[in-house]
Specification:
By secondary structure, this protein is an all-alpha fold. The chain has one domain. The protein is 76% helix and 0% strand. The chain contains 14 helices and no strands. The radius of gyration is 19 Å and the shape is globular.
């Protein structure tokens, strides 16, 4: 299909996905109140894998591709993100910085394909970097240098995972994520055992209340199964340029939900940083479309 815009029902579905992905940072914060971060990530991918792996066919891709994606997204993206959110960065700012994966993905793809960087991409990157500098300078309790660094490394891991997924070709994304989780769980469990220790792991599980387990389940069911399945369904029916700009709303939902449910402050510097990063993302995603429609020679 080549719709210039999404039909209302598809737009609402895309909005539901980005709302789930954005508010999920609040859910992560709740789960981290009782669970060590690496153990939390281990449990998340365990619930993604089981029992769904018995009902979803393995994608026809090499095991090495699944392993690379599982390591990058599991141990890389979510392992680092959960560690960062355990006292080093607020949920709202984490949701914002993680979207810089767009720039990492494009930079890696251009390096692989030996493409030249275009002017609008440089401008977009400079805007986003300016926003990150504002966060680093004013973060205080909302974002430590370690938290910013870990969030950016998580974003880089996500970007690398995107490249690996692209190399897999057109696949059922839900099945791809489920089977790749086979390779996310062992390194996350090993790092949890090494860095957090068995006593902390046992304490986290035994003291976790119903709210914590709901947070773990939501990571698997809402964030992964619904999110990836619905997003993949939309991408199969509409051009990527029509669907992907909706992802710009993820930090909007993330920062709003953090302010509403966790009382995260929204001082001027944080709003300026968000505006800079989101404007950079918007320029990067939308400028080619604007140029083609309004600036192309007649």
């Amino acid at each position: 299909m080549t719709h210039a815009s999404l039909p209302l029902r598809h737009f609402l579905l895309a909005l539901a996905v980005v709302a789930v992905w954005g508010t999920n940072f609040v859910v992560i914060r709740i789960g981290l109140d009782h669970l060590p971060p690496l153990l939390f990530a281990t449990l998340r991918f365990t619930l993604v894998l089981l029992p769904v792996v018995f009902f979803v066919k393995r994608p026809a891709v090499p095991w090495s591709n699944l392993a690379a994606y599982g390591l990058l997204i599991g141990a890389g993206q979510f392992g680092l993100l959960f560690v960062a959110m355990k006292g080093h960065i607020s949920p709202g700012l984490a949701s914002l910085l993680l979207q810089t994966q767009v720039f990492f993905t494009i930079a890696l793809a251009m390096q692989i394909n030996r493409e030249r960087v275009q002017g609008f991409q440089i401008a977009a990157l400079l805007l986003a970097v300016a926003g990150i500098v504002v966060i680093a300078a004013h973060g205080g309790g909302a974002a430590t240098p370690l938290g910013v660094g870990l969030a950016l490394l998580a974003s880089l891991s996500w970007g690398c995972g995107n490249i690996v997924a692209r190399q897999a070709g057109p696949v059922n994304m839900l099945g791809y994520v489920v089977w790749a989780s086979l390779f996310s769980i062992p390194p996350l469990f090993a790092m949890s055992l090494w860095l957090e220790g068995w006593p902390a792991m046992v304490k986290g599980v035994t003291e976790a209340g119903i709210g914590t387990w709901i947070a773990v389940a939501w990571q698997a069911i809402g964030n992964t199964m619904f999110g990836y399945a619905a997003w993949g369904w939309l991408l199969h029916r509409h051009p990527a340029a029509t669907v992907t700009p909706m992802a710009l709303l993820v930090p909007v939902f993330g920062m709003s939900a953090s302010a509403l449910f966790l009382g995260e402050g929204l001082p001027a510097w944080k709003l300026i940083a968000a505006a800079l990063v989101l404007t950079g993302l918007a320029v990067n995603m939308l400028w080619p479309k604007v140029r083609a429609r309004f600036l192309a020679p007649a």
